[in-house]
Amino acid sequence: MNLEQLPQEFLERMEHMLGEEYPAFLQSYEEPRKFGLRVNTMKISVEEFQRLAPFHLTPIPWIPNGFYYEREDDPARHPFYYAGLYYLQEPSAMTPASILPVMQGEHVLDLCAAPGGKATALGAKLAGEGLLVANDISASRAKALLKNLEIFGIRNSFVTNAYPAKLAEQFAGAFDKILVDAPCSGEGMFRKDLANARVWSLEKVKECAKTQHEIIRQAVSMLRPGGLLLYSTCTFSPEENEQTIASLLQEHPELQLVELPWYEGFAHGRPELADGNPELTKCVRIFPHRMAGEGHFLALLYKKREGEEDVKLCLNDNYIMSSENVSAEMVEEEAVQTNAGPESPDISRKRKKEARSVDNLNSNRKSRGKDKNPARERLTLGGKKTGAQSDEAVLEEFLQDIAPAAGYTFADMDIRNGQVYYIQNRVPAGRGIPFLRNGLYFGELRKGRFEPSQSLAMALRASDYASVLDFPQADERVRRYLGGETIDVEDLPCERKKGWQLVCVDGYPLGWGKLVNGTLKNKYHPGWRMTV
């Protein structure tokens, strides 16, 4: 990058901020950007991915499931990308969702979620348990968010397209964990995307700071006492970082900053850039001259319970730890495992006992019991019964081909105008919150037959379905399938000679096909096809 392309006022501000480190900061813009991918541990272990992936992988030191790759690897064109085995993400941008400690069964909100890098990471930690509410105010960006969640196989999501204030009206005090990756001036991404530098101005910085103040305040109102909120930006601006957190702490005495795990290259927050509050040193800054990534800022906030004094909390070895002023029961409740991969530990006894339904989420958690009606009469979101008996029979017949261990039960299905949805956590609708998806789109009933959806294929494991066609990644038919072609599969072993097949690559689902006389009719989602 030519340094002359960077705004002069920005450079002067950075020189004032960095002092003797400023020359090294400038030098970082002469170096090539780093490329990263994050393994989807809900589908594949890190070790297995390293064994299978044909890329030049180097571990990202501070991200357990993150890797650098080389530009020539082109992982966006590999079938494993279409199988949802990883997400392409700038290395520093992986940090917020990696650090936020999420446990299976919790209710989690990603308030500014598009295009889905952090939401997919949070969903993978939940591993199909609890609820992920993923929101973005932009309708077009929310569509990209939904696609990425579906590719990743996230089935327990409520994808919304609402202003934070509107969400706060319904979900006050509802979430265990909240991530606010706030829209910002993008200073930390100038090396990655020069377009951000072209539109930068001090006025934009101030406008972003004002927006961030409003967003994070709405987020605080949706955080339950005892919960954690992770605020992050990809900018260096103190107005959008330390000053935003300092103002929040002044207005909300129930909040306190939590010490984050420390990695070589991290920099402390700078109290002198805000109101001088020494607690701001618990924030983290990531600079491109200190670490192999772009610029980022993080602050983790704990919301105290009523009457609770300040407690000493920190993240250590993937757990929330407290050293004083908190009861043993509180420590047990707040101790959470951050790695919710395929082999993550069970939910704590306390969480299992509570097993909160999403109906409770809407009532500010005044009632924490299980759903009073486990059978759950199938209703539309408008409250009307739906689905003829013939439709029910067709759907139940298809469900016989899915292993019980997959967890899809008829009682958790909704049918609306022939569209079938699997909803294990039911979010009450009709309150002015626009949404794109509530649960998992399961498929469609058409004239006495059922057609499974692309999103269902991505949420399954190969062992979940009765008949699978599995291609090795080097088989040229994989790319032909992803391109939408009909292919010959007579040479492949298969449980049945006709009907629906779950198409896989090296054992990982890609989509559906229908087998007829040794030929696979392509049912891959047209909008997801690989282009030549």
Helix-strand blueprint:
Blueprint: H1 8-18, H2 22-28, E1 35-39, H3 46-52, E2 58-59, E3 66-69, H4 79-82, E4 86-88, H5 95-99, E5 107-110, H6 117-126, E6 131-135, H7 139-152, E7 157-160, H8 164-170, E8 175-181, H9 194-198, H10 202-222, E9 223-233, H11 242-251, E10 255-257, E11 267-268, E12 284-286, E13 296-303, E14 313-316, E15 319-322, H12 328-334, H13 349-354, H14 358-362, H15 389-399, E16 413-416, E17 419-422, E18 435-438, E19 440-446, E20 449-452, H16 454-459, E21 468-471, H17 476-482, E22 487-488, E23 499-505, E24 508-516, E25 519-522
Parallel strand pairs: 5-6, 5-8, 6-7, 8-9, 21-23
Antiparallel strand pairs: 1-3, 1-4, 2-3, 7-18, 9-13, 10-13, 11-12, 12-13, 14-15, 16-17, 17-19, 19-20, 22-25, 23-24, 24-25
Helix pairs in contact: 6-7, 8-10
pLDDT < 50 stretches: 323-360, 362-388
Mind summarizing the main beta sheet? 10 strands, mixed
Shape: globular
Mean of residue pLDDT? 87
The count of strands amounts to 25
